[in-house]
Amino acid sequence: MNQQIDPEQHWYEKVYQRGVPQFTLRAVLSGMAIGALMCLSNLYVFFATGWSMGVTVTAAILLFGFFGGLRSIGLVRRPFGALENNVATTVASGAGYMTGGGNMAAFGALLMVTTIQPQTLPMIAWFAAIAALGVFVAIPIKRQLINHENLAFPTGTATAETIRTIHGVGAEGASSGPSKEARALGIAAIFAALVAALRDLQWTQAWRTLPDKVKLPFDVAGVAAEKWTLYVKSEVVLIGGGMLMSFRTVWSMLFGGLLTFGVLAPALLERGWIGAVAYKDIVAWTVWPGAAILVSAGLTSFALDWRSVLRTFSGLGGLFRRGAPKPAEDSIEAVECPPAWFPIGFALLSPVVVLLMVVLFQIPWWAGLIALPLSIVMGFVAARVTGETDVTPTKAFGPVTQLVYGVVTPGNLPGNIMSANVTGGVGLHAADLLTTLKTGWLLGGNPRAQFYAQLFGVLVGAAILVPAFHLLIEDPSMLGGEKWPAPSCVVWAGVSKMFSEGLGALQASARSAIWIGLGLGTALALAEKFAPKPLKPFVPSPSGIGLSMVIPGANSIAMFIGGALAEALRRMRPKLAGWFNTSVGSGLIAGESLMGVVAAIVKAKKWLPLD
User: Fold this and answer.
1) Which of 45, 161, 185, 595 is the most buried (most CB within 10 A)?
2) Residue 210 carries which DSSP code?
3) Residue 552 pLDDT more than 70?
4) pTM beyond 0.85, yes or no
5) Helix and strand element counts for the chain (H, E)
């Protein structure tokens, strides 16, 4: 008679690595350092493109290369193990993703549309509390989604495979030098940093600088293409970002960008619906259909995953039944996070979040309380959807919360913006921890060690995020401009204004465009789901189309270049592309974005004689 194997018992007996160093001081410190750098990098990329780039794979490669290099010159004696890398990567992920989940989208939108100027320390506490709440929300559903249902969490699985691959030799002690992935990433980062230095540090005498753009040799409606934001940027960070995206997304962005700035914008000018050929004038109108596409596509995709939602709530109900979830044997309890940690963390953090909502954003305490259960529900759903699709649907969560608060606190624009930050942030950080816990599950890591590691990461990320924002964006009026398009901030602010003030303030043409955008986003999301498999690559990505309407056309062009190069390599040399695209793309992003932060510091402090 066959007995069904309990997955937890099998994992604990056959996979879990007992006695292997994991939560070490060097793993935590190196993860904090890499996470801090990637937080700065993602901050730069976010305001330039609207995207937050992946952290875990890049961090794993950097950490292995760093310790391998130290060991090769005798500064480190014991090899940096795969499970140490897993813990360090968890720390780095917690810090690096602090830019996502609506954190910087909400903060940027707040500064764009209100006169509120919150102080640095209270905002650090705000972001830390939201992120920590998300970490605790992951506890009660980890065993259901990972241990029992074995959801894919594709990024977590890919990170586990990357760690296995790069530690395949070094972990045995035969060799621990930098891998080819680490070398490629380092070379790309140095190249990108040099390009950024030559372009952004405008020396008067020392050397000849690079131009920031290459003009295209044609006009649009009798005006130079450059004026319509159609040109080629010298920002390799955008090319690197395109290399990490799907080809469908980047060709959709190119298609949408050319239509928006080459066709739609001239028509808007001709009809007098915009006042000038300038990026801010154009995007002030196109943000409405663009945001509508993003919101409707996100909500439609969310609705199409109704089975995931139902499974989430059925699993949640099991938490309150006596004896559920029941472990296979008591021994696994020594490494799993106790279920009691969730209500304890919720009880400790909830008053902090509500207090900050009242003090910082003038949200009534009773309205602040609404955000807490809503954020937990959103966190559970975000975790399951991420586990099944690798997409955390924060774009859908924000508008849902904004709609709720538009009803209960009408006219409170700061409250409308920052309440959505709660649900988005909790959802993102719950999904982020579960993604890294999937990596640990596959490698045999200790879940408690990763829980502690994630808390270290979010604390470091919160401490860096707000000061770095003020350093990088000296004047909030720069947001939404050609230098810092900040498309997510523009969309977040637009949706908040719409829900808090109503649609009556918009001109009629923009209101019509919203309805068209809602219909188009819904249609594209349905086509993504139901189109025949051979036709799916030809269905435009609603995320790509919507985003292309709120960033300069030049950004879409640059990302397409990166995506096209990566796709060509995938077709010609698929094995090489498997590691080359990720390593080089991540290196270009890291090198230019970090040099961009350095350049901002140099210019702010006036340390060099720059123009």
Assistant:
1) 185
2) P
3) yes
4) no
5) 24, 4
